[in-house]
Amino acid sequence: MFPDLNPFLYRPAGDRPDTIHRFDGWSLEDRDPQAIQAWMPLWGWLYEHYFRVQTDGWQHLPQQGPMLIVGSHNGGLAAPDMFMLLYDWVRRFGPERSAYGLMHPSVWKAPVPLVAQAAAQIGAVVAHPQMAIAALRRNAAVLVYPGGAEDVFRPHNQRHQIQFAGRRGFIKLALREGVPIVPVISEGAHDTFFVLGDFYEQARQLHEWGMPWLFGIDPIVFPLYLGLPWGLGIGPLPNIPLPVQIHTRVCTPIVFERSGRAAASDRDYVEVCYQQVCTQMQTELDRLVAEVAVQRSPTV
After folding, report:
1. DSSP 128-169
2. How far apart are CA 192 and CA 74, in angstroms?
3. What phi and psi values does residue 246 have, to the nearest 5 degrees?
4. Which of 135, 48, 45, 56 is nearest to 99 (CA)?
5. Domains of the chain, CATH where assigned
6. Read out DSSP for 19-57?
7. Closest CA relative to residue 243, chosen from 228, 258, 256
8. Under a CB-based contact definition with an 8 Å cutoff, are residues 98 and 64 in contact?
9. Where do the DSSP E strands lie in the chain?
10. What are the residues facing 100 on neighbouring strands?
11. What is the pLDDT along the chain (300 residues), one digit of tens a residue?
């Protein structure tokens, strides 16, 4: 039912058949359609019974060719809407249609090799322009959450806000490669836990006074949250999402008028494109939140 999660796998016989393969996010070849298919029963149960996902807008997705799928990160390290989006992708297009996700370099440094292997096998690569460009030039879809840790651990009262932390690299990437941006949004995923606030500045002060970072990795954020399994989570600890219904939506692709290196190097044009994406995604999210509120309101 589940993929082989042995933390180290041997590469096929070659020049160095005795070399152990470590999953570090720097290879597109680690994506394994069989491993993805093996996860589908678990994802399907979560989709149908735990999160009771409703989704729409898939007709907007280009049927072929490279694209940059841009999402708002929700729900802590569990990121439930991301996995439900992946489930929807696979059940529609099959595991053979290539899709890769950009994952923060610090996650690849986690002391549990199983995490890196599982991530690589379902299509995660290190969040670096080199890997994103390589995937796009293979006509693959690339999924990116520009807001990163600041977005996925944003306070609960900001759960309906698009927050990309001012990162514009994804715009430059889309312009340089001339690919459409396909926005994806969700409602409910950030209700699967409750972030009370970010205390990174206080944690950084303690670090400067001698407190070591866990695993030696600067966490970027230091949230205080209510959620499973800790009750009160202190720091960016893994969480088990609550069984809240999730709604996802694929929005109309955004195709910029200009493309190429010159467009990607034009700071003013990059800013215009960035604001266009943020505005369109916020408008779509506001609409989705309002629609869900109507669905949940008691009928008279």
Report:
1. -HHHHHHHHTTT-EEEE-TTHHHHHT--GGGTTS---TT--H
2. 9
3. -115, 135
4. 135
5. 22-193+245-296 (3.40.1130)
6. PEE---S--GGG--HHHHHHHHHHHHHIIIIIS--EEE-
7. 228
8. no
9. 9-10, 20-21, 54-56, 67-71, 99-103, 124-126, 141-144, 181-187, 194-198, 223-227, 231-234, 247-250
10. 142
11. 334 444 333 333 333 344 556 799 999 999 999 999 999 999 999 999 999 999 999 999 998 999 999 999 999 999 999 999 999 999 999 999 999 999 998 888 877 778 899 999 999 999 999 999 999 999 999 999 999 999 999 999 999 999 999 999 999 999 999 999 999 999 999 999 999 999 999 999 999 999 998 878 898 999 999 999 999 999 999 999 999 999 999 999 999 999 999 999 999 999 999 999 999 999 999 999 999 999 988 764
CA angle 165/113/42 to nearest 5° reads: 80
Nearest Cα neighbor of 152 from 271, 239, 214, 244 is: 239
Residue 82 backbone dihedrals phi, psi, to 5 degrees? -65, -45
Give the closest residue to 51 by CA, choosing from 30, 67, 74, 70. 74
Tokens coding 106: 């610090």
Which residue(s) pair with 68 in the sheet?
A: 142, 181
Q: Which two tokens stand for residue 233?
A: 């989570």
Taking the C-alpha atoms of residue 168 and residue 165, their distance in angstroms, rounded to an integer, is 9
The first and second tokens of residue 146, run together, are 């520009």
Q: Which residues partner with 195 through β-bridges?
A: 225
